[in-house]
């Protein structure tokens, strides 16, 4: 597709359940970012990938959160044993990082997670 | 990473020019200044980027003084559709560091 695609757009789950959120970046973009955004707050950095490897995962709040990008394209954010405090919009962004240009991030529309 | 400080919120009227200033006292030599815009229920969108002096595109202008410790995003003749949150970011463009967003400035345009 032309832009960053995130699925599902909305996810309602119960406390303690496991959740996967998927991000399909713009074709050819090597960098991929995950952010979490709560109401009235700016996007909170979680993790970013350069290719298949996690270049920086310092924003993951705890070991219940994990993300993969096995083939350097699609990424999945996995949340185990969800808690009500995990409720937020999870944003994915990709960037070409060609060594020139602006380093602009292209965001998807997010996955809204609600934990009951 | 250089920290940025910007006003939490601003109000203006349609047709006015809006200037949002961002402070980044610890900006590094290799850092660029980038602004994003975010509408409700959407991801942020790149507006403009600059290193020094002035940059202008079809959406906005970015003014950066010689010491680069601050920058000003200027939106000419705003309309109701410019109501959004605006984020100022500082960082290099080498792709080897995470990109951090602050809380942004919530701009509300009144009719």
Tags for this model:
heterodimer; A: 116 residues; mainly beta; seven-stranded mixed sheet; 0% helix; 47% strand; B: 111 residues; five-stranded mixed sheet; globular
What does this structure look like?
The complex is a heterodimer of chains A (116) and B (111). Chain A is an all-beta fold. Chain A is 0% helix and 47% strand. Chain A is built from no helices and eleven strands. In chain A, strand 5 and strand 6 (53-56) form a beta hairpin. Chain A is globular and about 40 Å long. With 111 residues, chain B is mainly beta. Helix content of chain B is 0%, strand content 47%. In chain B, strand 5 (53-56) and strand 6 (61-64) form a beta hairpin. The mean pLDDT of chain B is 93.
Average pLDDT taken over every residue of chain B: 93
- Oligomer state of the chains in this structure: heterodimer
Major β-sheet annotation of chain B = 5 strands, mixed
Largest interface: A-B, 31 and 25 residues
Q: What is the mean predicted local confidence, pLDDT of chain A? A: 93
SSE class of chain A: mainly beta
Strands of chain B, total number = 9
List the helices and strands and how they pair.
The complex is a heterodimer of chains A (116) and B (111).
Chain A: E1 5-7, E2 10-13, E3 19-24, E4 31-37, E5 44-50, E6 53-56, E7 65-68, E8 75-79, E9 88-95, E10 106-107, E11 111-115
Parallel strand pairs in A: 2-11
Antiparallel strand pairs in A: 1-3, 3-8, 4-5, 4-9, 5-6, 7-8, 9-10, 9-11
Chain B: E1 9-13, E2 18-23, E3 32-38, E4 45-50, E5 53-56, E6 61-64, E7 70-75, E8 84-91, E9 105-110
Briefly, what is this?
The complex is a heterodimer of chains A (116) and B (111). Chain A is mainly beta.
